[in-house]
Structure formats: structure tokens, C-alpha cells
Design a protein that fits this description.
13 strands, alpha+beta, four-stranded antiparallel beta sheet, binds 2-oxoglutaric acid, Jelly Rolls, seven-stranded antiparallel beta sheet, 264 residues
Amino acid sequence: MNEEQRYLFDLFGFLHLKAVLTPEQLSAAAAAADRYIDGAAEDRPPEFKANGKGHAHGFAFDRALEQLVFLPAVWPIVLELTNGKPMLASGTLMVDDPAIPSEAGPLHCARDDYGFESARYEVRHDRIYCDDFVVFPYLDDVHPGDGGLLVLPGSHKSEFDRPRHLFSNGLIEDEVPQGILNITPAAGDAIVMPECMTHGILPWKPTDRRRRMLVLRYRPHHRQAGPIPDAVIQRLAPETRELVESAHYTHRKDIAGKVRVELG
Ligand SMILES: O=C(O)CCC(=O)C(=O)O
């Protein structure tokens, strides 16, 4: 994590990293995502289930998607935020599709959903520690007015409960209230955001375009491993298998010693 990223992440509670996928990575990942989304369910292993927007374990569907868990521009950030103890807890492929009715997702965060003690964000020795965060690599362009991700900048450090009537009672369907930001990444960008950051979703408006992105949930490896079934783990490259494992506080994963991880 460089000085500029650390300053912005700490100040606003998210990072918008531009063009972190190469054009080749993007077209391979987008094609693989379409094979999952448009393919017949009976042609996929049974663990790969689609449920509305969510396509379970999308990161593991194809190597072109799997390699996005180690994006070179994001990996140093994952290492810093987990204090050198990275774990991937889950990696869903999310899709807003004009063919599926799109609803607003209410404002929420880990604190709201699971209590104040559920997610840590703090600064130690000039580095940021965060024990639950998401990386969203985008496979499609999002333009202002399209809808998509909403964030409440600065809320990752809020010490107070959000008065529920604020920001359209937390359900933003159209006009974005002052203070809330609609992030509109381009295909190939990635967003990094702590789960203790208040966020929500605007309905998807375009009638001729999808919004496809991975929701990669990272935690320090001493936290509980995510709900990734064995059959999915067996498909993964050795490096990703190491990434999804939980481990003792004192353990050091081999991948954590690498500034760049290539899938074997
Ligand atoms: O759809 C999005 O942009 C974010 C989805 C998400 O991860 C959430 O609401 O927690």
C-alpha cells in the first residue's frame, strides 16, 4: 500500500484503483463470467449455483477469474490490511442484469448487521489493519446514472450508530442524498472497502448492459474460514488453496512472503 493509497483509504474508507486488470485479464475474466452466467445449470458442477444476482464461488469457476484474487496492484494492500496473514473467505460473482428486476440494497455495514465488535479497523505502526474487507474487481463499465455501489465516506471510523431516518431512511432508490457517494468504476478497475464502511446499492437502470464484478472477501487467516466447499477448494491452484485456509495467529503462509503471486 503506498502513501497516497493509505491516506485516501484511511480518510474516505475506500480505494478506487483504476485499470488494475490488464486488457487480456479483463477479456478472459469477462468471457469466463459469461460462461457461468449464461451456461445451463446442469452443465456446471453443483456447487456453482446462481441465486438472483449472486453466482456462488464465481472466483473458482475458471482460472481467469481465480487469478483476480492475486491482482498485483491489490495484493500488497491485502497483505497490509491483514497484517501479512491473508485469507480469502469467499468470492461471489455478482451480476446486475437487465433481464432480472433490480432492487435497491439498503445501507448497511458489519457493525449494523453483527454488532460493534464484529469488524476492526485501526492504524498500528503507520499501517492500516482491517479484519474484514472486500475487493470488487469490475468486469463492466458503470456510468453515472446507471446505479450500483453506494458508500458513506468516512463511516468506517464512525463511533456512533447511524440514525435510521438519515439518507432516505437508508433505502436509496433514485436520488443520491448529500453525503452518500455512488461509485462508478470502469471495467478493469477495483474497489477496496472495509465491511465496517456503510454501503448500499442503487437499482441497476441500464436495459442493455450488465454490471458484473467479483465480491472477494478477505480476512486475517486466524479468523474463521469462509463457506467454500471442499469440491470447490479442490479445483483451485495451490496458491489459492493456501489463501482460503485458516491458520493459527503465528503461522506464516508462503504466499504472504511474495510481492506477486502467479497461479501454478
Ligand atoms: O452490489 C454491490 O455493489 C455491493 C454488494 C455487496 O457486497 C454488499 O451489499 O454487501
